[in-house]
Amino acid sequence: MKITVVGAGYVGLSLATLLSKDNEVVLLDIIKEKLDMIDNRISPIKDKDIIDYFKNKKLNLKTTLDYKEAFIDSNFIIIATPTDYNTETKVFDTRSVEENIEKIIQVNSDATIIIKSTVPIGYTKNIRKKYIKNNIIFSPEFLREGKALYDNLYPSRIIIGDKSSEAKEFGELLKNSSLKKNVVVKYMDSNEAESVKLFSNTYLALRISYFNELDTFAKKNNLNTKDIIEGVSLDPRIGDFYNNPSFGYGGYCLPKDTKQLLSNYENIPQNLIESIIKSNDTRKHFISEDIINKKPKLVGIYKLSMKKDSDNYRQSAILDIINILKDNNIDMIIYDETIRDNSFNGIKVVNDLKVFKKESSIILANRIDKDLSDVDNKVYTRDILFRD
Questions:
Q1: pLDDT tens digit sequence for 192-241
Q2: Is residue 252 among the annotated active site residues?
Q3: Which of 33, 228, 300, 317 could bond 250 through an S-S bridge, CB–CB 3.0 to 4.6 Å?
Q4: 388: in domain
Q5: Is residue 12 located within the same domain as residue 129?
Q6: In a domain, 356, yes or no
Q7: Within 23-117, where are the H helices?
Q8: Containing domain of residue 286, as a range?
């Protein structure tokens, strides 16, 4: 079976790697340097399982910049392009999805199109009507940065937003490519599948915000956050997971997905969804004010990516904290080995960790790292449980 994947980001590259174990896979992207790396089996993203598969597995995977070459004769064409949230229109920018659908129709109208990009609720039904095509199926992804291939190999569930024979064939394709036994594959209509994606991520944002507000309360009242969280989490209905305080939720998915869901709530009563978004902003301002009150001489920002095993800092909460500190004339330096320039957003980047630790009077670290163990007296973090 020939499968085409459009987009070589976390979603696209992990899917292409997964499916190329047993199928012919063509990966289409617009960045030649990234595709050259993949052809040479060098992962352009930080993901230990993709790196391992590139090194040790025989993959039937090739790349191209030519959409005609990519689309011709493909059975399934998976679209995994970015859909950023537009703050003016208050909806995802889905132009890249539609541009690819139009090209697919031109080259290979019989191919089943799978949308893996996150879209607004109701989008797939509307796009089917627009192009008079029933072979367009939405199937959400549930991946973590740095563990994208792992989450495809051991999926929590597979959701397919259609009940046709093509949908069931794609569901079985994902299931058979995984290494997990008894994977749950659930078929439903597209509106419901789109809702599953947005409500799942908004719940995760809610949980992060909840434990962050617990931590804020504890800190303001000089209480032991760790004791409270551990005591609360012993309740099996709550559970000991996704409960480590942070500077706020960030990354590519949660900020935009929560806002998109709120947009879908237009003319529908709600309080909680909007509060989740406001809570995250409040948390970032609380962290910033706490730092400003310490009157630091020079604040060191330890990595822009706030997750372990990730090199992606899109929409990272630390970026908003940096802007708040800048507005308050706080001097800063940044240490991040993924940044090649000498400055970021007008802030000096220091590539020498020893120099960074010496010059910083306080070091902001969303997650504790062993590299900072010798200067733990300088480290400002809300990483209570030393994980995640």
A1: 999 999 999 999 999 999 999 999 999 999 999 999 999 999 999 999 99
A2: no
A3: 317
A4: no
A5: yes
A6: yes
A7: 32-39, 48-56, 67-71, 95-107
A8: 197-380
